[in-house]
Write a structure and sequence with these properties.
Rossmann fold; 6-stranded mixed beta sheet; Hypothetical Protein, Haloacid Dehalogenase-like Hydrolase, Chain: A, domain 2; 2 domains; single chain; alpha/beta; 5-stranded parallel beta sheet; 34% helix
Length: 312
């Protein structure tokens, strides 16, 4: 792969923006960015492309990878709900969810026994003089005991700032919520998602998918822990990409999107060129114009190679 990429001579590219999903796309199953993908991204920039990570993670949860690929352009985080300046780490734009709607969703999620993960714009929750405040407000009437172990692991892994409260009425920043979600076992999470889909389906954007978990051991099966997320109706990665493209004068036909999961479908359906990695879900593969190698085979690097040489 390295020789193939290095043999490509940098030249002006037909595309001006490459939006790349993180988990399951840029990251391999080892939760790392491969050297092959890092080199390919550098070559894309040398060819005049803006490269933008476009992830369901919040800013703090993806910051290390933004730095690893040396991204200075804005990053699209929280499933498209926030656009963050990679240099200053300040929010450039956000799509908040209505507070009354967030309350309704929270009550349903609590009724299914979950702690509710209320994602905040950390740029808006800090005290005066602070760069950022808490990343998550976790609503749990039972305190920390109701929080799923995977959520605990995730928060510890990324050193997230979390505030646990017994009720959403204790939220001091009601206007800065961008997502309401749960994480837990497949059966209970699916039941909560089904009720919310039935009751709120026309009012929200929602996603249900497998959680990122510690690297599985022998005999362990993926997909046993699910994440369910609810956003304001218009929020998705593509609407955030549109906002960023307009800011930089980039025509939508000159945008490449690379992804693998349910929250990538909107950008795959609308980008000028859409590419799904081989390990993508069937819906993402169906939405894409092209299929690249899997995330464990440096599929992002292979796709960028094809774009830079003009084959795609």
């Amino acid at each position: 792969m390295r020789k193939l990429i290095d043999d490509i001579r940098p030249m002006p590219c037909a595309y001006r923006l490459i939006a790349i999903d993180l988990d399951g796309t840029l990251l391999g199953s080892n939760h790392q960015v491969s050297p092959e993908n890092i080199r390919a991204i550098a070559r894309a920039r040398a060819a005049g492309c803006m490269v933008c990570l476009c992830t369901g993670r919040g800013w703090v949860e993806c910051r290390a990878f933004v730095r690893q690929i040396e991204q200075t352009e804005p990053a699209i985080v929280a499933g498209g709900a926030i656009v963050t300046c990679a240099k200053s780490e300040r929010t450039l734009h956000r799509f908040p969810i209505d507070h009354a709607l967030a309350h309704e969703l929270t009550e349903v999620m609590l009724s299914h026994g979950h702690a509710v993960l209320v994602l905040k714009d950390p740029d808006a929750t800090g005290a005066p003089g602070e760069l950022s405040g808490h990343d998550y407000l976790i609503v749990s009437p039972d305190g920390h005991g109701r929080i799923d172990p995977v959520t605990r692991w995730w928060c510890d892994q990324h050193n997230l700032k979390v505030r646990v409260v017994s009720s959403l009425h204790l939220d001091e920043h009601p206007d800065h919520t961008v997502r309401v979600g749960i994480c837990g076992p497949r059966d209970t999470t699916s039941r909560a998602a089904d009720e919310i889909r039935e009751r709120f389906g026309q009012r929200i954007q929602m996603h249900l998918f497998g959680a990122v978990t510690p690297i599985l051991g022998a005999g362990e099966k993926p997909g046993q822990v699910l994440i369910f997320e609810a956003f304001e109706k218009r929020v998705n990665k593509w609407t955030a990409i549109q906002w960023l493209a307009a800011r930089h004068g980039i025509d939508e036909s000159r945008i490449v999107a690379i992804g693998n999961d349910v929250n990538d479908i909107a950008m795959l359906e609308n980008a000028g060129l859409s590419i799904a990695v081989a390990n993508a879900i069937p819906e993402a593969l169906a939405a894409a114009d092209r299929k690249t190698l899997s995330h464990d085979e440096h599929g992002v690097a292979y796709a960028i190679e094809r774009v830079l040489c003009g084959e795609w």
